[in-house]
Every structure is written in C-alpha cells, then in structure tokens.
Amino acid sequence: MLIVFLFIAYVMGKDSLYMEEYFNVADIFGENVFNDTVMQERLPKKTYQKLKQTILAGEELDLETADVIAHEMKEWAIEKGATHYTHWFQPLTGITAEKHDSFISAPLPSGKVLMSFSGKELIKGEPDASSFPSGGLRATFEARGYTAWDPTSPAFVRQDAAGATLCIPTAFCSYTGEALDQKTPLLRSMEVVSEQAIRLLRLFGNTTSKRVIPSVGAEQEYFLIDREMYLARKDLMYTGRTLFGAMPPKGQEMDDHYFGTIPERIAGYMHDVNIELWKLGVSSKTQHNEVAPAQHELAPIYAQCNVAVDHNQIIMETLRKVANRHGLQCLLHEKPFAGVNGSGKHDNWSLVTDDGINLFEPGKSPHENIQFLLILCLVLKAVDRHADLLRESASDVGNDHRLGGNEAPPAIVSVYLGEQLEDVLTQLISTGTATKSKKGEKLATGVRTLPDFRKDATDRNRTSPFAFTGNKFEFRMVGSQDSVGEPNVVLNTIMAEALCEACDELEKAEDFDVAVHDMIKKLATDHQRIVFNGNGYGEEWIEEAKKRGLPSIHSFVEAIPALTTDATVAMFEKFKVFSKVELESRAEIEYEQYIKSINIEARTMIDMASKQIIPAVISYATELGLSIGTIADACPEADVSTQKELLINVSNYLKEVKEALVALREINEKAYTMNSSSCEKANYYHDQVVKAMDALRAPVDALEMIVDKDSWPMPSYGDMIFEV
Length: 724
Fold this sequence. Notes:
Blueprint: H1 2-19, H2 25-28, H3 36-42, H4 45-57, H5 63-79, E1 82-88, E2 100-102, H6 119-123, E3 124-125, E4 145-149, E5 156-160, E6 163-174, H7 183-203, E7 212-218, E8 220-226, H8 227-231, H9 234-239, H10 264-279, E9 284-289, E10 295-300, E11 303-304, H11 305-325, E12 328-331, E13 347-353, H12 370-385, H13 387-393, E14 415-416, H14 418-431, E15 442-443, E16 453-454, E17 466-468, E18 473-475, H15 485-506, H16 512-526, H17 539-548, H18 556-559, H19 566-574, H20 580-634, H21 641-672, H22 678-704, H23 717-722
Parallel strand pairs: 1-6, 14-17
Antiparallel strand pairs: 1-2, 3-4, 4-6, 5-6, 7-11, 7-13, 8-10, 8-12, 9-10, 13-18, 15-16, 17-18
Helix pairs in contact: 7-15, 10-11, 12-15, 12-16, 14-16, 20-21, 20-22, 21-22
C-alpha cells in the first residue's frame, strides 16, 4: 500500500512539475517594469498626474515630485529583489552602458544602513565620460558627463546572475551639453517631427490630435552556434566574424532552414528569451528560422520610437545572455560567415497620432486620400533629398560585407511603393489627377474545402532598401548589431524638414485645395526617380540608378562624409537635433571605429595565421612527406603520385600564405603608424589593408579544403552552422 501511495505521489509530483512549465503570458508580461499601471497603483494621484504631464507635454519635473517617484520606484524595485540601481544609457560604442550604485546609505552610528534613493539620483547621474568616444568634443582629462532620466521610457528591473538591478533609461551628454549618445538626438528628432506633422494636420482640419509619435518595430536577426566552437575561433571572439573559412558542401541552397521546424535546443533557448523579454515589457511576437543554417529572427510589436530603440537594446542583451545559459553563442555581426546569408535589422517606421491615426494608412481608395498622398510624396522628397544620409545611418564595418549582396538590400537607396501606389503616382504625374486605384483580386485556390483569398493590390519587394508595406515603411538596410537610434533620428528629421517646407508654403496659400493638388503633382514629378519597384539585385538597376543620378555608396568609409555636408548640417541645425560640432564629432568617431575595427581584424588574421594555421599545415605536410617516404621504402612499386601532388599543392599554398602574411603585416603596420587625418587613414585601411586581408584569406581557405580535418586547428563552417 505504501509503495502504491509513493508511486501515486511520484506521478503527481512529476505532473505538477510538468504543469509548472506552462504559464499565462498575460500574467508575467511587464511584471518587472515600472509601467503606467504600477505608477497608478503606487504613486499619489497628484504625483502621478504631474509625471504624466511631464511625459505627455514635456514639462520639467520638480524635485519634490521626483523624490516621491524615486521613493516608490525604489520600494517597488526592492520588492523585486533589487539591491542596486543604474542609469542605463546608449553611448556611441554601439552597446549599452551602466554604472551600478547600491541603495544603501552611509552607515548610522548604530552600524545599520538605510535603503535610500532620491529624486536627484533618479533625474540625473554623473558617470565618468572620459573613456567614451566623443570625436574630439572633449579632452580625455575632462571626465564629467551627465545622464538624464527619460521618463517616456519606463524603468525596469533586470534579474540575472548578479541579482536584480533597477535600470533607469537615460540620455547621456557632455558637461557642455553636447549629445554623447543615441537617445538625446532621438528624443530631439521625435519632438520636431511631431511639431511639423501637427502643423500639417491642422491645415487639413484636424483639431483633436495633439502629438504625432514615430512608431517603430525593429526585427532582429541573429546566428546561434555552440559556445565551445565559438571559443575555439579567435576571429569570432575578437571580431564577431570569421576571418577564415571555406564553405561546406551544403549552405542555404535548398532553403530548407527558412521557416523550418525550430530544433528543440533552439526552441528551449527561444522560450527562455521570450520569458525574459515579456517580464521586461518587450512584446516579443514572432520567432522563426531565417534563411541561413543556424540563423534566426525575433520581431516585437511596434512601440513608440524611443521605447522601441530601448527594447531593441534589451533584445540584443537578452539574446546574448540567455545563449550562454544554453551552451550557445549568439552572433549579432552582419556577416559572421562569408558566403552565407547575413543578418540585418528591418526598421519598420510609421507616424501615428496620439489618438490613433496612422498617417501612412492609404485607406481603401488611396487616390482619393489627399492627405495620405501628400504625406507619401513628402516621404519621397525626404528620402530622395537625403538618400546619402539615410545610407550613412545604416553603415558600419560589418554591414560592408552585407549590403549590396544578393541576400540584402542594395547599397543604392530607393523606395518601393508597389503596383497600386506607383499607378496612382503615374496618374498624378501624367494628368495631374489620380482617378482610380488598382484593386485586389480574388485568388482562387482551386480546392473546394479552402476559401478563396483576397489578393492584395500590391506585392512586397525584398530587394528594396526602403519599402512601403501597407501602412508603414520598412527600412531594410540597418545592420543587425547596430542601434536603431541613428536611422530613426535621420528618418524623423528628414521627414520634419519635408513637412516644414510643405506647411510653410500651404499656410500662405489663398486656395488650400488647389495648392495641395499642385504640390502633390510637383512632388511626385520631382522625386519619382527614387521610386523603383523592380529587382534591386540586377546589374541593370545599378546602371539605371546612375542614369537617375542616385548616389551609389559602397562602403562605410564612403558614407561617413554625408554627416557633414552643407545640406545635412543646415537641416539638423535648423531643427536643433544636432549642431555642426556634434555632427563633425560623430563623423570623427565613425572614422575611428572603422580604423580600430579593421586593425583588430588584420591583427587577428596575423595572429591566427602565424600561431595556428601555418604550424598546423606544416605538421600536416610533414606527416604527408613522412608517409610518402614510408610507403616508398616499404613498397617501391607503389604509386605515390597522388600523395606527392597533394604535398606540392599544400606546399605551394603554404608559400602563398606566408607571402600574404608578410604583406599584410607590413601594410597594417604602415596604416597603424600613418600620421594623417582619420579620414585619410580610414580610406587607406579600406583600400589597402582590407585588400591584403582578402589576399591572405584566399590561400588559407584553399588549404582548409585539402588539409585533413583532424589537422585543421579550428571548427569549420559546417561544424558551426550545422552542428547546433
């Protein structure tokens, strides 16, 4: 009887444990976020109203109110297990930064400590800014910097191996007020695009909307490989990408990984990622296998622009952190494996009023929606005028390996509108009036048990860098490891400029309807060159783009000057998003980033070739030579021509490796010691060092294909992308 009882208890216990794995997402979503619901529950009514006024109207928060908020935020965080707080910000290093301070105060005479957190500590922090890149804005010895609370992005408690930490999203600026981060210019750009969009809405008779908010959804692509293999690759550890590596017999040709069944190990990882994100209020919505083996994607639901940027940083941090728990390594580099599909970050951008009107919603009859047509044409104007700047906003060292390839958007910026809107645009240009919109048709399935589908009046174009996708624009050029802050700063500001110029003209018009009609026709005519619905991968598009006068920028180094053109400086200074000094500093930082990144890559190649690859190949060649001698001694009649041929090939490639290694070492040393401007130095790295790196890689990859696998000193592509 006892045995039966114990067995029942065991089974029930197992079932209970099993059932505990299931949960209701709604129960945990946002549980670690100091969100509006929590604030309403914990803050006095007057304090809550003042904070909401600050958030909605941008009014300054007084210290007395901040003290009350800080106290309740601290108490809430402590209940979540928090011992420390940090101002969580995004400097120009590409990663988030934080300095942790505990809640404890100075010990009392009794030896006890109190847990305290003041309004002053909430609103402003003073981290050492000397080690963050400033592009010459400040001297190294000028250490002071300020972090300022962004109350529009809620604080959250992050729980990990270090315990629990209250994270306060903040902006980061220098002692003299210049922006040293991604957040400050982003908030500035959101304000100016809202101001100008409201001007236009008022002209169209909208008196109810008070703000226009950029809405963003950033899709995140990434690779997962086994962590032990990652640790066996110095190039991945130091640079984020493989500097050597031959393609395996199978890559992504069969398209069998895309949307395929998610492997159990990966599904377990995604499960834990989702739980972490949901607790932090990040609306992780979609997950699936991407095109390349070992490549995946996570997409959240749209959020207010600055919140979406913060959430994307949280997503990247979480992807990396959870991977380690599962014995995996998350790779966010745009091109971790040459010849394999790279990773991007599609930035879905729209403009939405505070009362829920999407300015990019065409409606059922776009040709009759005058407000939409005007806004659409203003987007075309903005993108056409600042195509170089938009291209620059998606540029980084890693993206150079991705953009322009046949698995990513072309390096030439163009806009995809689809058949329906392109037809409307054509009507406007040719006749001055659009009288009809193409309608979707029924798509018959041919199966009686299945319903017929309503076919959209337009398709999607995955080769377009900037595509209209129903009620938003999808900027597809952004790199997978980049902050989406910079692209959205550019999108918001160039749109603000276009809106401002339109309003300046329309506000003076005697007949508004006629003026709008004429403006739409002129904009459509002047900027139709930016519209391209065809195959962006084709060589014919490159030639066509030249004829249209569209900028073709092939590299990060070529893109950087767009930051400091007269047109760029004039626009950003007009709307007080960036000063000329801030733009020049950002250009300098980007040149420095390129120089340092390529230098690290070159030095890593030199290290790997010298210490791993050449010794391994010599050992293999020696064994091969000994085996030839052994066979010849044992059996003179045996044919060893195959072995001799292999030895000759190995020796010849080894010579090429040595020569290329010497050349790379000399060229990189010359580049490193150059006494010239950052621009000149960066261009030399791009033109000479990268070329020398390619020359070294070619014979090494050839050797990997003929050297015995057991003799090769590092995991192969096949090992990493198929054995996970």
